[in-house]
Specification:
CATH topology of the largest domain: Uridine Diphospho-n-acetylenolpyruvylglucosamine Reductase, domain 3
Radius of gyration: 21 Å
Strand content: 25-35%
Number of domains: 3
Structural class: alpha+beta
Number of strands: 20
Largest sheet: 6 strands, antiparallel
Low-confidence stretches: none
Shape: globular
Mean pLDDT: 96
Bound molecules: uridine-diphosphate-2(N-acetylglucosaminyl) butyric acid
Order of helices and strands: EEHEEEEEHEEEEEEHHEEHEEHEEHEH
CATH class of the largest domain: Alpha Beta
Number of helices: 8
Distance between the termini: 32 Å
């Protein structure tokens, strides 16, 4: 365990904003993680766990503590009839792992193709796309419990998985070091539910298709939305979706319907609630694709991604996001919540005020 001092964080994130980490260390073994946590605790330093940096906004002042870059490797496979149990280190690259699953003919995460990040990050916000959520394939998460000072295996049922949610999100207590998945050994996909994907594949809703083909189609859809990281695509300099899709009750849906010129896209969310498309609300509230004249703006390919057009600061990105949030609230009365994790900065203005007063 030998942390480096003053490590710039912007290049380690996909949004490419923010200042340095006071100290940073790459962790490849659980023992080293425990040592790093103890060291930070002894110094009274805050600690943040970074993976691929694809869902974080780092503040311009950087992070005043220890950044642990999760790099624990390993893929262990057990076969039991047509069930595969696969233990994966939190530091493994997510999309390389998905490609492996698809290539081996293991069904369960094919729709989560093309997503940047590391395996350990996927349970944190219960990564989901194209009708699949990672929680559907997770058996358990191995995590270091900072409160108890020991490792725990948390069964999926106790992980509190919901839409972009789990007990791990915005919670310093747990550090995921590994994920146990269970897949069916089958070369075709799970039943396909996402209308856009079904259309692209020319199949019916609920049909299956070869997972290899599904993966290709999804990567193409994501690329068209600027959601595949690529040096050739300036629209991919983002943190993916900047807002979660709001889940509203029937009265709020009726209000949005009354205010909009067209019928808003909506998805049943259970308990008489509806998930609205945040991208749609953003566009209809006056923030079309490509909006913004400065260094921070709305992606030209998808209204839910905010893009750093070159040299933007975290402050500019956050200001842009707050303008959009306020615009959507005043146009439709719907509150948008951010999806990324904020490191060394806050989303909530009152948090900033408190920080200023505390200084
Ligand atoms: N739409 C617009 N304008 C746009 C884009 C979309 O009006 O610029 C409308 C369309 O009506 C479209 C609807 O919004 O039908 C939904 O759009 P899309 O299918 O692109 O999905 P999304 O709800 O915007 C979610 C996830 C994505 C995931 C896709 C595909 C969230 C916050 N985002 O986006 O996840 O890839 O579905 O399943 O749930 C991420 O979390 O970072 C992410 C990229």
């Amino acid at each position: 365990m030998d942390p480096r001092a003053g490590v710039p964080l912007a290049p380690l994130t996909t949004l490419r904003v923010g200042g340095p980490a006071r100290r940073m260390v790459d962790i490849e073994r659980e023992d080293d993680l425990v040592a790093a946590v103890r060291d930070a605790d002894v110094r009274g330093e805050p600690l943040f766990v970074l993976g691929e940096g694809s869902n974080v906004v780092v503040g311009d002042g950087g992070f005043p503590g220890l950044v642990v870059r999760m790099a624990i490797p390993g893929i262990e496979i057990r076969r039991d009839g047509d069930r595969m149990t696969v233990d994966v280190g939190a530091g493994e690259d997510w999309d390389a792992f998905v490609a492996r699953c698809v290539g081996e003919g293991w069904r369960g995460v094919e729709c989560l193709s093309g997503i940047p990040g590391r395996v350990g990050a996927t349970p944190i916000q219960n990564v989901g796309a194209y009708g699949q959520e990672v929680s559907e394939s997770i058996v358990s998460v191995r995590a270091f419990d900072r409160t108890a000072g020991e490792f725990r295996t948390i069964d999926a049922a106790a992980c509190g998985f919901g839409y972009r949610a789990s007990i791990f999100k915005r919670n310093d207590r747990w550090i995921a070091t590994g994920v146990r998945f269970s897949f069916e050994a089958a070369p075709d996909s799970a039943p396909l539910r996402y209308a856009e994907l079904v259309r692209a594949l020319g199949v019916g809703e609920g049909d299956r298709a070869p997972s290899v083909v599904v993966r290709q189609a999804i990567v193409a859809l994501r690329r068209a939305k600027g959601m595949v990281l690529s040096a050739d695509d300036p629209e991919s300099v983002s943190a993916g979706s900047f807002f979660v899709n709001p889940v509203v009750d029937a009265a709020a849906l009726a209000r949005v319907e009354g205010l909009a010129a067209e019928r808003p896209p909506r998805f049943e969310a259970g308990d008489g609630r509806y998930k609205l498309a945040a991208a749609w609300l953003v566009e209809r509230a006056g923030f079309p694709k490509g909006w913004g004249t400065g260094r921070a703006g709305v992606s030209r390919k998808h209204a839910l991604a905010l893009v750093n057009r070159g040299g933007a600061t975290a402050r500019e990105i956050i200001a842009c996001a707050r303008t959009i949030r306020d615009g959507v609230r005043s146009r439709f009365g719907v509150a948008l919540e951010p999806e990324p994790v904020f490191v060394g900065c806050t989303w909530d203005e009152s948090g900033e005020e408190q920080a200023r007063q505390g200084q």
